[in-house]
Design goal:
This protein has 4 helices and 2 strands. It has helices at residues 6-32, 65-74, 84-96, 101-108; strands at 47-51, 79-83. Bound molecules: zinc ion.
Length: 109
């Protein structure tokens, strides 16, 4: 173990986690853009990806780089970039109003 000091190990792990997250974020941003598909805003927005069928899926935090590459290469058309606020609103419309993504997209985009 390269770190005998637990605090130094903790800092190293935190740096590694941030670097890994940034690599994942970069892949998502390059594939889906940094703009919300619904409100078209990007400034001060954390963009997440929404599965158009509304079914649960792994969040960015839960995915590793291989998961993300696979998603982009094989299922990209099933997802869209949304800001957190629009993502919550879209799910509300899908669950509470029973709207499919294509109808949500027509009314909101
Ligand atoms: Zn939005």
């Amino acid at each position: 173990m390269p770190y005998k000091d637990k605090e130094e190990l903790r800092r190293h792990k935190k740096d590694w986690d941030m670097t890994y997250y940034q690599k994942k974020r970069k892949l998502i941003d390059e594939a889906f853009g940094k703009e919300c598909h619904v409100c078209h805003k990007s400034e001060n927005k954390v963009i997440c990806i929404h599965k158009k069928d509304g079914q649960p899926h792994k969040k960015l935090k839960q995915m590793n780089l291989a998961d993300i590459r696979y998603l982009i290469e094989n299922n990209k058309d099933e997802y869209v970039a949304l800001c957190a606020l629009c993502h919550t609103s879209v799910h509300w419309c899908m669950v509470r109003l029973g709207l499919r993504w294509d109808l949500v997209e027509v009314y909101w985009s």
